[in-house]
Specification:
The protein is an alpha/beta fold and about 350 residues long. The protein folds into two domains: about 170 residues, Bacterial extracellular solute-binding protein, family 7 (D-Maltodextrin-Binding Protein, domain 2, 3-Layer(aba) Sandwich); about 130 residues, 3-Layer(aba) Sandwich (D-Maltodextrin-Binding Protein, domain 2). The chain has 16 helices and nine strands. α3 runs antiparallel to α12 and α8 packs antiparallel against α15. The structure holds (2S)-2-hydroxy-2-methyl-3-oxobutanoic acid. The site of (2S)-2-hydroxy-2-methyl-3-oxobutanoic acid (X2X) has 12 residues, from α5. (2S)-2-hydroxy-2-methyl-3-oxobutanoic acid (X2X) binds next to α5.
Length: about 350
């Protein structure tokens, strides 16, 4: 450019340096960025956190040093406040469950609509397609920068009392749930008594038989040894699944150079893809070897077929309809269309 010579160019550079997005300077980086997860590295979720941190360290030559805080410890273990922490800067980065964030981001209740998704392919269709992009726009509109979808998994039902094959079997069972009031509605519609507890409170409550049952992905059921806490009946019903979101606090993000942001994003994409694979390990195909491991812990497994699930679907239909309105009917209809078999 003809005029952009000498003092003019220097003045422009000085001006740009005053704008934080352009002036991000590695010298101003924090010595530690705090990454929140609910589960520790012995679970696929926490392992994903460690992996994300390690990859970011590698890709940024150690400029961005991340420390993982499992147990949602940055918000005193109250996982439903994790999103708020990510907004107000108590948390710099998180791998958060859509369930735990849904009290603040109502659209994320989508994945908790009973029996919306049937299989892993359905989860992928939603997270990797236009619905997932719309949800990221919604999260981003609230502040945090979402980077990639990970996975906790389909949530299966366990209890210490009896095999559950129909909604009648759930009558009067005290079931631990977390997060959104949607779970309270769902369990109540099935005749159970929902009890809201964070994960850290759930295990002692199960051990002391203050609650009869819970729902969680099978990898968690196995590795947390819930069978050892008396959870010896398991029903495979795939009623909801919770994808995880890799995200960064907005101010933290804007404080990084564009190259470092790109490094963090790429690291999230790699760690998230590995996380999805790890969350599904042993649960794909006909054999599903993880089920044998669970049975070896002394657990009796009931597998519901399509007809078996139908009674649960019918019993929870009014909850589905009520929450479709809260989530946004348009988004729900688009999701339904995308996973139609
Ligand atoms: O608390 C749970 O059940 C867990 C670990 O699965 C979540 O954070 C949603």
């Amino acid at each position: 450019m003809r005029f952009a010579t000498g003092w003019l160019r220097r003045a422009a550079a000085a001006l740009l340096a005053m704008v934080p997005a352009f002036g991000a300077n590695a010298a101003d980086y924090k010595s530690e960025y705090r990454l929140s997860t609910v589960l520790p590295a012995t679970f696929a979720w926490g392992a994903a956190g460690e992996r994300w941190a390690a990859l970011v360290g590698e890709k940024t030559g150690g400029r961005i040093a991340i420390k993982m805080y499992p147990g949602a410890s940055l918000v005193d273990g109250d996982q439903t406040r994790e999103f708020a922490g990510l907004l107000n800067g108590t948390i710099d980065m998180a791998i958060g469950s859509t369930i735990n964030w849904s009290p603040q981001v109502e659209a994320l209740n989508l994945f908790s609509l009973p029996f919306l998704m049937h299989d892993f392919a359905d989860i992928d269709t939603l997270t990797r397609g236009p619905v997932g992009r719309e949800l990221f726009r919604i999260v981003e509109g609230r502040g945090p920068v979402p980077l990639a979808w990970g996975e906790n998994g389909f949530r299966e039902l366990s209890n210490s009392r009896r095999p559950i094959t129909s909604p009648e079997d759930m009558k009067g069972l005290k079931l631990r749930v977390v997060g959104s009031p949607l779970f309270i509605d769902t369990m109540a519609s099935l005749g159970a008594i929902p009890v809201e507890l964070s994960w850290s409170d759930a295990k002692p409550a199960l051990a002391e038989r203050r609650v009869d049952g819970q729902e969680n992905p099978l990898g968690i059921f196995l590795r947390a040894n819930l069978a050892g806490l008396g959870q010896t009946h398991l029903t495979l019903w795939e009623y909801v699944a919770d994808p995880l979101i890799f995200a960064v606090n907005r101010e933290v993000w804007e404080g990084w150079t564009p190259a470092d942001r790109e490094a963090v994003r790429q690291a999230a994409v790699v760690a998230a893809a590995e996380n999805v694979a790890a969350a599904r390990r042993g649960l794909e195909g006909d054999q599903r070897p993880l089920l044998r491991e669970i049975e070896a812990q002394g657990v009796r497994i009931v597998t519901l077929d399509v007809a078996g699930k139908q009674a649960f679907r019918a019993a929870t239909r009014s909850v589905y309809d009520k929450w479709a309105k809260i989530i946004g009917e348009d988004l729900v209809r688009r999701a339904e269309e995308a996973v139609k078999h």
